[in-house]
Write a structure and sequence with these properties.
about 180 residues; alpha+beta; Double Stranded RNA Binding Domain; about 25% strand; globular
Amino acid sequence: MNPFASPPMIRVTLLRAAPLALLAALTGGLGACALQPLYPGGGSGVVARSLANVAVSPIPGRDGWLMREALTARMGAGANARYRLDVRLDDRLEGLGLLSNNTVGRERRSLRARYQLIDVASGEILLDATAGSDAGINVVSSDYGTVAAEQTALENLSHTVADAIVAQVAARLSTVPAGSR
């Protein structure tokens, strides 16, 4: 037996530790980059408090109600509204695949939002952007199942688009000077 050979357990431990050591070495230089977290301080940070100062205007329709609920859940009630978020939705449902009996076999639901972040005091538009997402739906033999899938797709799309809107609004509010938040 070779007295200089390492036991198998030590080799396995070293192999497992190697990726962690490499990761630590690679992330050691990240402190020098210009990246900063969007939500420093978490829920009590500046951006989170700024999001709580955004009131979401009413949005007509069932899709509008879902979107408004998703936005207010992410940003807060907007009781002391310094900003207003106006959202217009375009919800489309289109048939895609035709089957041999001339029925639709697949649908696509698209939800697009055009939104503006407005400073209530000055009326200045701080952000004018769009966000959207699509979902595929299988059309099944049960009308109830298809309608349920369409509604579930709309609910999921509302959450996805609301996440994109909140991220853009948060990014914009993070660039507003501290005195005017």
